[in-house]
Amino acid sequence: MASETRSAEILESLQEIRSRVQLATTSGTPTLVAVSKYKPASDIQACFGAGQLDFGENYVQELEDKAKVLPAEIRWHFIGTLQSNKAKVLAAIPNLYSIQTLTSTKAATALNKALPEDRTTPLNILIQINTSGEDSKSGLHPLDSETPNADAELTQLARHIVTTCPRLRLQGLMTIGALEQSLNAGAGDLNADFECLKRTRDALASVLSAEFGGEAKARWGEEGTGRLLMSMGMSSDFEAALKAGSDIVRVGTGIFGARAKKQ
Ligand SMILES: *Cc1c(COP(=O)(O)O)cnc(C)c1O
């Protein structure tokens, strides 16, 4: 249990972030993922008590440990570096809701194979895109909307998920983006990373529709609408991301406060 002071602190930050999300939202109801890496289970429990269901974690072991002791109603989003050899551990977490950092067919195949047959819903998958081109960021190359390339790595991975991974659902795309983009952007400036993810999303959607179309369309995107979702925006830039049309924002520091450095 978090202390009363700590709970009150978390709830206040959560309320503030929620209202800022609401104010910045241009359409629909975006998902706020509370990023809880390095934070104790008691912090998550306090948030959960306030109706927060979506939490994001970066480390497989940490996620596994927390999922065991926290409520089964929680929807866990894995947002850390994904290694194919961790697919089994991740797939065994019954309330794992999404993996936002997929970048390889190998990992997709491993996940699809490892997911238990009795799982009632497919695991949501977002493909990570390196929109800033920085070496330090993982992710596949964006697509150019002028000439969407049917052989691009991203298109191939999307096709692989849609055609050969029935236990996965390609829900959309995710980017981290460059920090400078948010620091240097003035009010009204467009964030180049967010615009890039949007172009890539639109290009991928048209490639998929052209290739499959018809009823196959039900196999990707948001349940019901088939829209490919975008996960972009963190504590420092979630408002800009929402203005650019983000569907999923991932906020850690803004809710839980600064993180200790990993030893
Ligand atoms: C840690 C992390 C976040 C949250 O970052 P904050 O700046 O603390 O909001 C979001 N997305 C990813 C991929 C992360 O690793």
TrEMBL record:
Top-rank lineage group of the source organism: Eukaryota
Classification via CDD domains: PLPDE_III_YBL036c_euk
InterPro entries: Ala_racemase_N, PLP-binding_barrel, PyrdxlP_homeostasis
SUPFAM superfamilies linked: PLP-binding barrel
Pfam families according to UniProt: Ala_racemase_N
Boundaries of every Alanine racemase N-terminal domain copy: 16-259
Cofactor: pyridoxal 5'-phosphate
Keyword Signal: no
UniProt keyword list: Pyridoxal phosphate
Modified residues (N6-(pyridoxal phosphate)lysine): K37
Entry function: Pyridoxal 5'-phosphate (PLP)-binding protein, which may be involved in intracellular homeostatic regulation of pyridoxal 5'-phosphate (PLP), the active form of vitamin B6.
Family of this protein: Belongs to the pyridoxal phosphate-binding protein YggS/PROSC family.
Protein name: Pyridoxal phosphate homeostasis protein
Organism of this sequence: Roridomyces roridus
